[in-house]
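Reminder: ligand-aware prediction takes two inputs, not one.
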Amino acid sequence: MIEDKNEKKTTLSELGEFGLIEHLTANFSIKNKTTILGIGDDAAILDFKDKAVVVSTDLLVEGVHFDLSYMPLKHLGYKAVVVNLSDIYAMNACATQVTVSIAVSNRFGLEALEALYDGIRTAASIYEIDVVGGDTTSSQSGLTISVTAIGEVNASDAVKRSGAKPNDLLVVTGDIGAAYLGFQVLEREKEVFKVNPNNQPDLDAYTYIIERQLKPEARKDIVQLLQDLEVKPTSMIDISDGLSSEIIHLCKQSNVGCDLYEEKIPLDPQVISTCEEFNLDSTTIALSGGEDYELLMTISQEDYPKIKANPNLTVIGYMTDARSGMHLVTRGDEKIPLKAQGWNSLNKD
Ligand code: ADP
Ligand code: MG
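Here is what comes back for the chain with magnesium ion:
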């Protein structure tokens, strides 16, 4: 789990920039018919015919967004792609291409970048997207990765953050809070390792939450599910920063309020047990944890019969008018104003 300082290292300068790009991108095949030309020219060529095109970019900086002491590079490559695809799915769109740009310091050898690209290739294959370009440059310190994801959607099917109406149901996919707790466990093990490098951590009780942190998945399946159920959400967003701040984004951009029910928030049993062990409040973790990459959406009441039996979709509240404000309704039936508190602020506690 900890970076091996003695592993084989071929310096990047031995290959040169072009050799490196050619080497890393050699095994990328094209799967989408919208990709006319991929890697290798000055620019890629895409053709979306009459579809609308959605584009989203994320930037990941070592020491800010990831810590290589417990994040294997293969997982990092995978996660860098997946978190971008999540933004495309949050528009109710189908992800089709990505570009990947990296800045690397001479601390990294070829083998490290091969591992990174192994993860990128795995994500591309699982999510059926094409890697169509990028840029490669050196950096003074550390690793920076920027991924741009591209997708397609019928313009009338795109779902924005701004369409929620009073009385709409607030619906979330999967379960919430696990990725942040996985991060807490990994941070704790990192400190233990610093004191005693021979200590082999026993992480059996945390497999799900650690996987949610190191190998998140984007909800491509939900875009398909909504289509199958013939449900178009009135608004949608992906949960990267924590449930409460995402709810607040939907409310503000839609000009509505919201009642969120504490007892309805879906939690995995491992989240509950780990919260008990760490003496953390599971609702606080769900509200502020972040990095869940689940989808949060609002659905018109008349679509309720279509979604109610589905195990992937949980109704956690409903929208109100803007004047009513944004509230958490607790198990004790108290109403508390929702605060935007992403995992960054949670970290400083
Ligand atoms: P330019 O000098 O025009 O920027 P490059 O030599 O950087 O061209 O890139 C050559 C080709 O390789 C282009 O298709 C580019 O998109 C692709 N490419 C460069 N770096 C990466 C990377 N890190 N990942 C994927 N594709 C890349
Ligand atoms: Mg370039």
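The mean pLDDT is 93. The longest helix spans residues 178-195. We will return to this case in the review session.
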